[in-house]
Amino acid sequence: MASTEGPHPGGTPGTGPVRDPNWPAVTAHTGERPQVDPTLYLHPSTLARLGSFELRAKMIVEGVMSGQHRSPYSGVSIEFAQHRPYVPGDDPRHLDWKVYGRTDRLQIKQHQQETNLDLVVLVDSSGSMNYGSRDFADASGTADKISPTGRTNWTKFDHATALAAALAFITIRQGDRVGMVVFADQIRSIVNRSSSRSVWRSIVDILSVHPVDQPTSIGRLFDQTLGKVSNRCLFALVSDCFDDLETIRGSLARAKHRGHDLILFQTLDRAETTFEFMDRAPFVGLEGEPTVRVDPRAIRKDYLAAIGAHNKGLARICRSFGFDYQLVDTHDWLGPPLASFVAKRNAMMKRSKFG
Amino acid sequence: MTFLHPAILLAGVLAVAIPIVIHFFMRRRRRPIPWAAMRFLMEAYRKRRRRLTLEQLLLLAARCALLALLGAALARPLIGAGALTGDNPRLLVVLVDNSLTARVRHGDGSTGLERNLAIAARAVEALDPARGDRAAVISLGAPAAAVVADPSADLASVGRAIASIRATDARADLAGAADLARAVLDAAPDAEALVVVASDLLAGSADTDRALPEIAGFERTARVLAPDPAPAIANTSVAALDPARRVLTADEAGGRFVRVQLRRFGAAGEGRSEVTLIDERDARPLGSGQVAWSAGELDRTVSIPFAPDALAAAGAPVSIRAEISSDALGADDVRHASIEPRRSIRVGVVARSRVGSAAGLARFTPADWVRLSLAPDESGGAIEPVPIDPVALDAPRLAALDACIIVDPDALAEGAWSRLGAFARDGGPVIVAPPAGAEAHLWADAFIGAFALPWAIDRQAADLDPPAPIDPKSVPADGSLALIAPEMPDLARPVSVSRLLRIRHETPGETLVGVELRLEGGAPLIITDDSGRAPVTLIATAIDLSWTDLPAKPLLVPMMQELVRRAVGRSRAALEHDAGDRVLAPARTTELVPIADQDRAGAIPVDNAGRTASPVRTAGVYRAIDDSGSARGLVVVNPDAGASDTNARTRAELEPWLATLAPGGSVEWIERAPGAADQDDAAAVAAAIGSRDDRRPIAPWVLAAACAVALVELGLARTGSHAERSEGA
Lengths: 355, 729
Known about the structure:
The structure holds two protein chains of two kinds. By secondary structure, chain A is of the alpha/beta class. Chain A is built from ten helices and 14 strands. Helices cover about 35% and strands about 25% of the residues of chain A. In chain A, helix 4 packs antiparallel against helix 5 (about 200-210) and helix 7 runs parallel beside helix 9. Chain B has a nine-stranded mixed sheet, sandwiched between helices. In chain B, strands 6-5-4-7-8-33 form a six-stranded mixed sheet, sandwiched between helices. In chain B, helix 4 runs antiparallel to helix 5 (about 155-165). In chain B, a hairpin with a 4-residue loop joins strand 12 and strand 13 (about 285-295). Classes of the chains: A alpha/beta, B alpha/beta. The interface of A and B includes residues 242, 272 and 285 of A.
């Protein structure tokens, strides 16, 4: 894989991390740091299981190479799309003479142009992603007890790393391009889109040592990302989405308006969804929030109601834009839910009239 | 509401702090939990914050209240007025004040004792024999004594016992009486306890600075009844009579005076007191003095000289008294002392016999210097030095001495030290100086052991280079050298000490007591132990020119004379006591007989330790008689000066003080109308004794309240734990 730097994920083909100038420089393939074994995050059995699935864009995306995905540009192609009435000026070569013979009406035959899929994985590296109640050894594909940064727990960010690697793996296997944006309060790192088979390793390399300590701003992420993407893409947003629902709604609306597809993987730790703490303790925020001393049993019901309402709201927003939403539990193996999600997505595409 | 055991209540109130401390302690030691989904946690917390805070406060309040209520229940609360009563038999303990203070005569002509006896009698009369009431009687004259120790239902006998109580010259011992009363009450745990303090409660009887012990035990309360405190009465007392010399030799000129201290109580306006010094052999006045009091002046000391030959012919101890004109409290207007006129004082000088001869000053040994200082006039004087060889120091020789000076202590055998110890215990002063020629002073161990001295003495003499001068300001005002203290700067100036034995307290860090003279720099030069019947003195330097130039200086003569005279006088002063003590008699005394009691009817036996078998509560002069019937000397017992205080106490001062007798009980005053007759007092006492007390214990109710609070606490704790909600969520 080439290592040319470029801040534009939709730019010329080529990969390489682009980092915020305020952040320590991390270059994936310059040999300045050792490569991380991707199986640390993706178990070989998970990779094997994902190999039989193909990720298809539900919407028509535009690509620069012909492929298995539909193109929005109707024209000469081998796959029929639709008829429309002939108007003066149309190329008579596109007239469907069979229809004219049966109905005595001039109809222009339109075809779908098949193109490739560009997947951009948006990975949340805000401080809240640094929470994890699962042992690293339990979740790691290599059963290592500590992470490359010295942690002993499997955080949501670790799980997002695994998920991003899995998505990249699937995408590259079907010959599509994949890129990555790491964000927190703004874009922190970028891996340009590429169809190189090693790009998913690059993704793991970057994410495995990426700082996870800034506040979240999904709104700013989309402002910056959409400004850099010129073609329509499939975005995979991997985040705990601890942000205002209205901000998220606005961001997804802008992505929808620009014609992009999006899959939201809301990544949560099981402790966050069950909140089964028993003893009174001070809770310290990971994004600089004030400490709260509270008896967790006293507020569990209200807490679960609040986070449940937030999650339902997220799912509802995604549905309203026709995006897919998947809740990911960091205590579950990544393979089964991801495979289930891909299968479900493909089935939906087949049921659709474009499938 | 009152409490039987307020200390437990206080403990319960203090225990309230425990849950609060635990609350804050647990808050500190909990480990923080890093948390990502803070927005939802804070949202939930904001929603519940008020309720959670309220739950916590209620839980904390319930726990605090629980502890406080438990403390209150254990403190045995009583509600209502008065004391517990019913138809239970009553046990009355009457404390009758027959102290010196009770001798005071009130404006109506009655004495305090008469009033106290009347109140005691009325209190006993108010009892009901049919109900099973009993009474015990304790007199307060120090030390307190049980007049009727075993509570008796024979109230007539008790009345007679009260009538037999006589006044004493001792102070009131209410604390000792409380101990006796407690023993009486403990023997009858079921009876309703009544304690009547039959006293005027003037300041001399009611020493509120002295804490009183409890007379009621843990499970019991008592009613304490006392008459209204009497108003102040003007009184002047002879507080001290201190002869300058208690052993008076024929040639003594400077010591022929006494110091008399007068004190005033009650109203203290301008006035005049005349003090007369009287020879008690023939009531002949020896001298007199006058004190002109200014307004508010309470304390004066006057010196009264007497004629040089006034006591010369006595040949035996003479009792003298200082008296002032009689006032409301006549018993303290007289004070006695004894003076022993002597032709001479025989002082043994124990030293080795001199062998060989020398010339000049070197021909004088330490014993020579001592003898010269004691008898500078070769023709014979008031002090007669008696040379004694150390090997010849036996009991008969010691018995013929008034004092003994040891200048060669290293020559004494162990048996000789034992005999010297016995000599001191019999009242013979001993003065010791180190030997000049000894390298190691091993005798110091035997010396300390023989007299049980609290000192540690170096075995090696310390060389002082340059020689240290004497500190003339180191003479204490009550020391043996006090009489020559004014001349000490001139006398001490030429003297220096080049060698001496270091003396320390036997316990490191403790301060030496009894230092009579020090060197510049603080090293003790002369020290006296005055804890026995006769003083024991150590001079830290040898009376020798190789140690000090003291022998060749004028200071030696007055110094040795004063040491001997004061030491002999102090041994006589040990025979003067305050009423209420077990009196120390002269050696080999078997009984004390009042000096005016020719038929020995009032003889007081003396035990083998030399003290009277029982306390002597009556002031006076007593003859010490041995088993052969011979007189061993005089013993003086004076009124306790502390009991002369006739200032008034207020109820506010007395009530908390008396209340300590019966925690949780009550102090009730027997109202005494001004100018009331005995009958009125009787009615008041009967009313007080017969009154009923409606107070009821409410400990069960408080305990029930504590249980209720405990249930509430359990409920709150369960609610606060949110266990059910957690399981169901």
